[in-house]
Amino acid sequence: MVTTAAAVRSDGDGEQKKREKGGFKTMPLILASEICDRFSMAGFGANLITYLTQQLHLPLVEASNTLTNFSGTSSLTPILGALAADSFAGRFWTIIAGSVFYQIGMIGLVVSALIRSLRPPPCTPPAIPCQRASGLQLAVLYLSLLCTSLGSGGIRPCVVAFGADQFEHQKQPGGAEAAAVAERKRRYFNLYFFTMGFAVLLALTVVVYIQENVGWGWGFGIPAIGMFVSIVVFLIGYPLYVLLKPGGSPFTRLTQVVVAAFKKRNAAVPEDPGMLYQDKELDALISTNGRLLHTNQLTFFDRAAIVTPGDISGPGQPNLWRLSTVHRVEELKSIVRLLPIWSAGIMLATAGSHNYTFTIMQARTMDRRITGHFEIPPATLSIFSTTAMLFTLALYDRAFVPLARRVTGLPSGITIFQRMAIGLAISVVSVGAAALVETKRRGTAAEHGLVENPAAVVPISVFWLVPQFAIHGIGDAFSSVGMMEFLYDQAPESMRSSAVALFWLAAALGNYMGTVLVTVVQRATRGHGDWLQDNINRGRIDNYYWLVTCIMVLNLGYYLVCFHFYTMKPVEVADEQGDHDKEFELSSVRKNGNGGGGAAAGGFV
């Protein structure tokens, strides 16, 4: 739990001015901007494979690789955006810069869709062979995709952290201030993911329909207009926002700690932490919400805060490559401590990746009729996952939290750790359900003699796939929101954009891990059943799902072990009645579920 820095300031006018900024009054602007932004991104990318293959006439493999590279780049650029936001630009201007880059990329796609010379001529093979896009036409495409990838790098790591920043300097009278701020931020994270899901659902239905039935000019133009609206709406709220100053490159500070600790690797760590180096003035810009307190884990890095001859110059300035403050050492410890729990989210993304590959292949072989003449497109099944997530988020605060509060006594109902654990457990059920449904689909194909006819429609409704999508969406509402809140809450305040970037990095690594897992399984089962093959009626995708289910069970156990040994970051805050400091480990309440005990270990009840 991060505490407010407003109490440190004694200037009443300045304090009142700060209180007038931020809070829930900024949420309509931030969330409206996020709806337009996410609508644009989802509408832009949802059907891009069709544009590349049918309009630019790229081969399927080349088009697939292009989108894979684009998706991978878009998941890695948030690291650069987070570095810029935390180092010098700040989150607000990083979001604006990212939105402008994304807008430029979308305009490039709109232009290529409208100007005939930027696309190959239409074709109707075999009568009129298709002509592949020229070098110039592809250059416009690649440049546009590069701009959107750079734009994603500025938007993704900063929007959610910027919204949560609006509650950092709010205070409530009495001792309820910490719980009140925590409650507001929890509600904000739920709202953020709800609006994101709603925008994606809107894009998957409206924009895809327009692209398929009206034209690509409007199909790309409407998302481009949505992005422009998001920029305008976001800028309107500038006078209302809390803008936190960047504290310099966090990666430089972390490197300085590592270097200083290594140089003093032979030094003895003092038993009294009070002997380690402290400098409030030096840390003022990166600890506005309170300095981090010393912890007894990862004590090797404490050597960076041991004062030795030559560490401090004549004017009293420390050589930061030889000496770091306790706060800076604890910044590094905080990042190292959260990485094991963060890594549990990688397998979550791996487990969900098959919803957009093998599940689509399954759907193509099933009966997709809704009415006599209308069939649901296979890719549209992801709507059920998004819809389930939206319903879960809508009911979370109104139904789940009040019920859980009666059992646990916690204002939030459950802790963020319990929320992530529930999400991971539900994801296990989702993959298990996928395995059971595939077993039934293969059995039906065998009963009707369709094992050797992969193009035939297996007489089983495609809606058998809905439960696994819905369960996945419910799990996502718990795990993804919990993970995002955990990364924001437990990261050092000067590194929150970087911590949020880890959320997207986990998604990227999870997708890459899915590719590796598929490759390994394909090679391991080649000639021994061929689990993954073009003829899925003869293959054993259900065995692959059971393998992923077992891995997810192990991943859940790994998460529980990481939780047991996790230490919440302790923060030093100013006393409301004076200007001296008190030491609190406020976050331990949210780990253990009660106010007693230490912060190093706790249970789920």
What does this structure look like?
With 605 residues, this protein is mostly helical. Helix content is 62%, strand content 3%. The protein contains 18 helices and 5 strands. It has helices spanning 12-19, 27-45, 48-55, 60-89, 91-114, 135-165, 177-213, 216-236, 250-263, 280-283, 326-352, 358-364, 382-408, 416-447, 466-490, 496-525, 541-564, 588-592; strands spanning 291-292, 366-367, 458-461, 571-574, 581-584. β4 and β5 form a beta hairpin. α4 (60-89) packs across α6 (135-165). The longest helix is centred in the first third of the chain and has 37 residues, at 177-213.
Provide key terms for this protein.
disordered C terminus; 5 strands; mainly alpha; 18 helices; 605 residues; three-stranded antiparallel beta sheet; globular
How would you summarize this macromolecular structure in one to three sentences?
The chain has 605 residues and is mostly helical. It is built from 18 helices and five strands.
Dominant shape: globular
SSE run: HHHHHHHHHHEHHEHHEHHHEEH
* Amino- and carboxy-terminal Cα gap: 19 Å
Q: With helices defined by DSSP (H or I, 4 residues minimum), what is the helix count?
A: 18
Summed over residues and divided by their number, the pLDDT gives a mean of 81
Low-confidence stretches: 1-18, 574-590, 594-605
Percent strand equals under 5%
Residue share in helix: 55-70%
What's the β-strand tally? 5
Question: What is the structural class?
Answer: mainly alpha
How do the strands of the widest beta sheet line up side by side?
Answer: 1-4-5
Q: Compute the CA-based radius of gyration.
A: 26 Å
> Major beta sheet, specifics?
3 strands, antiparallel
